From TrEMBL:
GO MF annotation list: beta-galactosidase activity; carbohydrate binding
Entry protein name: Beta-galactosidase
Lineage of origin: Bacteria, Bacillati, Actinomycetota, Actinomycetes, Micromonosporales
SMART domains tied to this protein: Bgal_small_N (SM01038)
Organism: Natronosporangium hydrolyticum
Main EC class the enzyme belongs to: hydrolase
Length: 958
């Protein structure tokens, strides 16, 4: 082994994918011996390659001064260097294929015993993932160099291995390499050996690779099985009566139960030679594009999908497999049926779970060169995708993914990567893939004209585009017209939102060609940290001293970093629900099975009628089993007479346990109003005494309330501001609402008391409300009346001037004592709801503490709004407090800090409770939209400047 070679690192600046690697092949386990090399290794990080110890790979190198580091892991998450987040920009100069001299280089060493029995058996050293480039030595012998961070690498270790002895494995990992130019995904830059390392015995005459082709003919219900192997082997599927059948031959196996994402039936099989036996699971399914539609087993499928990055708040992309399993179960329970592995192949075991639990998977190649697009969005100057120097790397990456994952029934499409422009290297990848695997269509969103791919894919299109594509009125060009349409990304789940999910789903259900989409994205990539005083919070870009970063744009998931579902996930679950239950004009409900394959036979339909939110009667609705896509109309049950507003709620629930949910799990829900509210009038009649009216005492200087039945209050005053959501900020969206609001000063309104009129039985307060240096403002007139028990407010709000944008909210703010810590309400709940995100909410009576009302978004912002509130009671621990009701309905938030503090906060730890509770009682809010990346709030969910009227009744609790 020449030390000269060791000292030089030309490979760092070579687009080539490495040297010395074995050809790519399927990932599988067998009865051949294997040594798990995961564990605690010795580790040393150097700031540059030159400063790294030149001879660290030598067996007798002294590593006593080194640190321990777990493998798999990222070194930045174990105290060596810092993570960094960028979305599109490269954190180093665009100077391909060169990388900076300051290139953190991690040297790893571990030793292990190899059994004597391995003598004479070929051995393969396998790495499932190293970020970004590594050079490997075993017992002082160099095995090779590899890059392609989220892809496996194998090296022939036979000659270097010492069977029956101690072996020393040394790996040098560089944070940056030429490969980094094609790994510019929107995520943390994290380095190291972050997936498993194994030493595999490869018995002579064993099975090195195999390719299962298990097709299903939906017309006959029959399966055909062909297993390709390089050398002859025997395949057995006992359940199908197939025993020791030959590989490389078609076997007609008769009637089979097909695999699909809803009923993922798999057959247990073994593939064997005399030297090796491989246990496997086979799923029969056929993926085709037929008449412009993507079908599986002859049926059009609909993606109810999410984009999934591999992420864990403590471990980065080294996610423990039990966490992955729980995460996939969580998806199933929220009716998600599809995953795009954005933007690289996942850990291989994740795909086994997808086979087992049932997901449609788009497996995406580890290629993104987004930073090249920034300078010139049309041209992408110097883009590796169109540079012949990089062709080998592109093809290598595709090949390693396809070969590794080709035996998974869940993988139904290959994706060439993400946001890498378009170039000839894509053509080469596509061509190779089609030849290698004609059984799966190709996807790549960046191929806008569909030159090389089989599906027309788009990111964040507005509804109008989806509608036009659905009607074949867009994409007139020849190449796209005959292709199915999918949204590989839509509904940007950053912060509070996304709104408008129902509207997209309606189009997917209306137009066969629109085959669903994948919400961006599944998880917030927040890294767990602690504040100086020990409080836990999640960090994002900029929290680690990065000179260049994209802040909290990495916090854009449906679940928080610790996988707590957000309101957005609950909304998505309601929109993706496989059972829909809707009221008809007659006294009936329409129930539909929205599964593409599964029958609804192990389902019960529970109903309950609630009178002002309290159950009055319940039962079970008789519904026949429903075939996929079947619908029935069922008469409402006989219901008892009620005297207040009453709703019938019907819930479809599993009657038996499923692998992904327990019996009782809800598959869908619907509500029917069976008795409307009795119209209510505002209390009047009580005479004013000075500045007291009924239970209310006024502050004549401001025209607001000072006390309510002796309880100190402050307000109510007109408020139109909300702490902007990420979607209001509109970072990459079509509108920046929050900027317009700030420019108009909505966050700093001043109130001028114009008139306070004391009538016999009313107090009328007239104000003009506007911001400094603004002419535009609002007239707000508060008319107060009362009876003995309650005081009523009728607020009229009229714009004075132009407001050419929707208002965040319109209503009043009222501060009440902080001891009022519990809220019970009758309205939409239990979770938060906004105008365009209310599918998961139902009308009912709910109780939560003020603290439980908050959704702790990692980047603080407006949250916790409850819609369509008829009344709410704020109570202290003794049951004292007051009720706010309305003859109409209102929107309510309650929190222990002001909107101003919420606006200024950067992390959850910035939210410090006051000793009061701030209530916002609103006519309404503008909806949420998806404007952080994509379309802003839909027209019909925008709140105009008015005039508005808000009517409230404040009554102390007896
Ligand atoms: C897309 C990209 C994703 C992510 C998203 C915004 O353009 O493919 O990786 O950056 O935008 O969060």
């Amino acid at each position: 082994m020449g030390s000269l070679l060791i000292m030089t690192t030309p490979y760092l600046a070579q687009p080539d994918p490495g040297a010395g690697r074995l050809p790519a092949r399927a990932a599988f386990r067998s009865d051949a011996a294997a040594i798990d090399l995961n564990g605690t290794w010795r580790f040393h990080l150097s700031p540059t390659v030159a400063e790294a110890p030149a001879d660290f790979w030598q067996v007798d190198f002294d590593d006593t001064g080194w640190h321990d580091l777990p493998v798999p892991a990222h070194w930045q998450l174990h105290g060596h260097g810092e993570p960094a987040y960028t979305n599109v920009v490269y954190p180093f100069p665009i100077d391909p294929p060169h990388v900076p001299t300051e290139n953190p280089t991690g040297d790893y060493r571990t030793d292990f015993d190899a059994p004597a029995a391995w003598a004479g058996t070929p051995a393969v050293l396998r790495f499932e993932g190293i970020d970004s480039c590594a050079r490997v030595w075993l017992n002082g012998h160099e095995l090779g160099v590899t890059s392609g961070s989220r892809l496996p690498s194998e090296f022939d270790a036979t000659a270097a291995l010492i069977p029956g002895g101690r072996n020393l494995l040394a790996v040098r990992v560089h944070q940056w390499s030429a490969g980094s130019y094609v790994e510019d995904q929107d995520m943390w830059w994290l380095s190291g050996i972050f997936r498993d390392v194994t030493l595999l015995a490869r018995p002579a005459g064993g099975i090195d690779d195999y390719f299962v082709h298990a097709d299903y003919d939906h017309l006959t219900g029959r399966g055909t099985l062909r297993v390709e192997t390089a050398a002859p082997a025997r395949i057995s599927v006992p359940e199908l009566g197939l025993l020791d059948a030959a590989t490389n031959t078609d076997h007609a196996v008769g009637q089979v139960r097909p695999w699909n994402a809803e009923t993922p039936y798999r057959y247990q099989a073994t593939l064997a030679t005399d030297a090796e036996t491989v246990p496997l699971w086979i799923g029969f399914r056929t993926v085709r594009i037929t008449d412009g539609l993507l079908t599986v087993n002859g049926r059009r499928i609909l993606f109810r999908g999410v984009n999934r990055h591999e992420f864990h708040p403590d471990h980065g992309r080294a996610v423990p497999m039990d966490v992955v399993r729980d995460e996939l179960l969580l998806m199933k329970r929220h009716h998600i049926n599809a995953i795009r592995t954005s933007h690289y192949p996942p850990h291989p075991a994740m795909l086994e779970l997808c086979d087992e639990l049932g997901f449609w998977v788009i497996d995406e190649c580890d290629i993104e060169t987004h930073g090249f697009g920034l300078e010139d969005w049309q041209g992408w100057p110097g883009n590796p995708s169109d540079d012949p120097q990089w062709q080998g790397a592109y093809l290598d990456r595709m090949r390693r993914m396809v070969e590794r994952d080709k035996n998974h029934p869940s993988v139904i499409m290959w994706s060439l990567g993400n946001e890498a422009g378009i170039g000839d290297n894509h053509r080469v990848m596509a061509q190779w893939t089609r030849e290698r695997d004609p059984g799966r269509p190709l996807h790549y969103e960046g191929d806008h004209e569909c030159r090389y791919v089989d599906v027309y894919s788009a990111m964040y299109p507005p509804l109008a585009t989806v509608d036009a594509v659905g009607r074949y009125e867009q994409a007139a060009d020849e190449l796209r017209r005959d292709k199915p349409f999918i949204l590989c990304e839509y509904a940007h789940a950053m912060g509070n939102g996304p709104g408008g999910l129902r509207d997209y789903q309606d189009l997917f259900e209306r137009y066969p060609r629109c085959q669903g989409g994948f919400v961006w994205e599944w998880i917030d990539h927040g890294l767990r940290r602690r504040s100086a005083d020990g409080q836990e919070y999640f960090g994002y870009g900029g929290d680690f001293g990065e000179p260049l970063h994209d802040g909290h744009f990495v916090i854009d998931g449906l679940v928080s970093p610790d996988r707590t579902p957000s309101p957005g996930l609950r909304e998505l679950a309601a929109v993706y629900a496989p059972v829909t239950i809707a009221a008809t004009d007659a006294d009936s409900v329409r129930i539909r099975n929205r599964y593409d394959f599964a029958a609804l036979d192990q389902v019960t339909y529970h109903w309950v009628i609630e009178e002002e939110g309290l159950p009055a009667a319940e039962g079970t609705l008789p519904v026949p089993p429903l075939a996929p896509d079947e619908e029935v109309e069922v008469a409402l049950p006989r219901l008892p007479a009620t005297s207040a507003e009453s709703w019938l709620t019907i819930s479809a629930r599993l009657t038996v346990d499923q692998p992904w949910a327990a019996a009782g799990h809800e598959l869908g829900q619907g509500q029917v109003m069976v008795r409307p509210a009795t119209p209510r009038r505002l209390p009047t009649g009580t005479k004013r005494r000075g500045d007291t009216l009924g239970p209310a005492e006024f502050d004549p200087a401001r025209g607001t309330l000072r006390a309510l039945a002796g309880m100190a209050v402050d307000g109510p005053r007109l408020d139109v501001w909300r702490a902007p959501t990420d979607n209001d900020e509109g970072y990459y969206g079509d509108r920046k609402l929050a900027q317009a609001w700030r420019d108009a000063g909505l966050d700093r309104l001043q109130h001028r008391l114009v008139d306070l009129r004391r009538d016999d039985d009313a107090i009328v307060v007239t104000t003009r409300v506007a911001a400094a240096q603004q002419r535009n403002g609002f007239w707000a007139t508060y008319r107060w009346t009362a009876d003995q028990q309650a005081v009523a407010l009728e607020l009229s709000v009229t714009p004075d001037g132009e407001f050419p944008f929707p208002l965040p909210r319109v209503g009043v703010r009222l501060a009440v004592p902080g001891t009022l810590s519990t809220v019970e309400w009758f309205g939409l709940g239990p979770g938060e709801a906004y105008a365009d995100s209310r599918q998961a909410a139902r009308v009912g009576r709910f109780t939560r503490t003020v603290d439980e009302w908050q959704t702790p978004y990692i980047f603080p912002q407006e949250n916790g709004g409850r819609m369509s509130v008829r009344w709410a009671e704020l109570r202290d621990e003794h049951g004292g407090g007051f009720r706010v009701s309305s003859p109409d309905t209102y929107q309510l938030t309650a929190r222990r800090w002001t909107s101003e503090l919420l606006t200024a906060a950067q992390h959850t730890t910035d939210l410090v409770a006051d000793d009061v509770v701030y209530l916002n009682l609103d006519v309404g809010h503008t909806g949420l939209g998806s404007g952080s990346c994509g379309p802003s709030v839909g027209e019909r969910y925008r709140l105009g400047p008015g005039p508005h009227r808000l009517r409230l009744i404040l009554a102390p609790l007896p």
